[in-house]
Amino acid sequence: MRTNFLLAGTMLAVTFLAAPACAQTAGTAETAAANAPDQTPAFENQTRAPLPETMPEISADVVAEGLPQLWAMEFLPDGRILVTTKEGAMHVVLQENGEASPPIEGVPEVASAGQGGLLDVALAPDFESSNRIYFSFSEPREGGNGTSVATARLTEEEGKLALQDVNVIFRQMPTYDGDKHFGSRLVFGPQGELYVTVGERSDRETRVGAQDLGSGFGKIFRIDAEGKALADNPFVNEEGALPEIWSYGHRNLQSATLDGEGRLWTVEHGPKGGDELNRPEAGKNYGWPKVSYGIEYSGDPIGEGITALEGTEQPVYYWDPVIGPSGMAYYDADAIPEWKGAFLIGGLVSQGLVVLHMDGDRVSHEERVPLDARIRDVKVAPDGTVFVATEHRSGGSTILRLVKG
Predict the structure, then answer these.
(1) What is the mean pLDDT of residues 140-160?
(2) Which residues 6+ apart lie within 8 Å of 108 measured at CB?
(3) Burial of 114 per CB tally in 10 Å (0-12, 13-18, 19+)
(4) How many angstroms separate the CA atoms of 135 and 137, rounded?
(5) pLDDT in tens, 8-65
(6) pTM score, two decimals?
(7) What rounded mean pLDDT belongs to the chain?
(8) Exposure b/e, 120-134, CB count within 10 A at least 16 = b
(9) CA atoms of 103 and 360, how far apart (whole Å)
(10) How far is CA 290 from CA 7, 42, 218, in A?
(11) Whether 122 contacts 151, CB under 8 Å
């Protein structure tokens, strides 16, 4: 199988090898040494789950290349792809020829230094009648910046695309003068609720905010379409707590999706080791930075170096070394039947697609599709093929379509 990438202005041919569809497999997808080898999982298959007995042969076709550095993709009802770029532009990309529109007018200013930029984008549940979209971005503010969520109408007149009635409906607070761990993914739940994932801004003085219910750092928020807290959120009646909080104790959440039952699942960036899959539930504490798998980048332990603590949740799954999780999708289509019911996660560090096969709410198997590129977002197309957006460190992105065979 072959595909082409445009890297630093040079066209490179990359060949991917995958196991034959009926090949017998053994071992695990991850074979490298752990950063914290003395840490042990809390239960079977919490890490390094076995490879599945059979894995489909996957080929990658280039949909569009030479794009600006992308952060997120979303399919429009007519099949075009709405994309956000780190530097702060939105475009619409045609699947037929990979052509990108001029920048969409009306996008607000973003703080694009470091890990900041124009982040996720989602269509409103009633998009076909309202043309309304929602997007998250690192917003420049007095004294620094922070992750914010805005909504707007996507309009098109005489071929010219624009955002109208732009309104910031939610701001992660407090404002902080940093350039890391903004999150962020946007996921609409089955009742129209909007989940917003954010980071804890990375630094030691901010990471402790992940445990503070009065801080917006390291949280998942659950809001309505106007940015207000839902009445049944877990902390709406707790004095001093932000009513928008759904769950807390998170590090940097850049992966989120619903499963087939409409439940939220996330994958968050760990430190050096410790990326973790969770099914966040109302009011629960996911531990960071009191408890974590992995170690500091310096090699020191995280806090007291513990991996379990009463009152905090164990991850459903964790990775050491990290995969560098980005976009995430639940596969419920038929084009690649071997993946039915699996989570598809983009790997920035592992440079490919990570496929988690589930047995109930536990991981049964893990497989990987190497793509030799940092994967920033993952979406399942209406026909069941899988689209991924790559991210080149030198700048620029490619959109690939993954198909069986």
Answers:
(1) 96
(2) 137, 139, 150, 166, 168
(3) middle
(4) 7
(5) 333 333 334 344 333 334 699 999 999 999 999 999 999 999 999 999 999 999 999 9
(6) 0.94
(7) 93
(8) bbbbbbebeeebbbb
(9) 43
(10) 40, 17, 13
(11) no
User: Hey, what are 276's tokens?
Assistant: 């973790």
The vertex-137 CA angle with 136 and 143, nearest 5°, equals 135
Please give the structure tokens belonging to residue 80: 């075009």
What local confidence, expressed as pLDDT, does residue 159 receive?
86
Nearest Cα to Cα of residue 135 among 73, 177, 77: 73
Neighbouring residues of 206: CB distance < 8 A, sequence distance ≥ 6: 176, 178, 200, 217
Q: What is the mean pLDDT of residues 119-125?
A: 98
The mean pLDDT value for 78-91 works out to: 97
Q: Which residues of 287-307 are buried (b: 16+ CB within 10 A; e: fewer)?
A: bbbbbbbbbbeeeeebbeeeb
Which is it for strands 10-15 and 386-391: parallel, antiparallel or unpaired?
unpaired
Question: Is-catalytic flag, 181?
Answer: yes
Structural tokens at position 55: 């894995």
Residue 370, preceding bond cis, omega within 30 degrees?
no
Rounded distance between C-alpha atoms, residue 307 and residue 39, angstroms: 7
Which tokens hold the place of 243? 């009513």
Question: Which residue in the list 181, 250, 269, 357 is annotated as catalytic?
Answer: 181
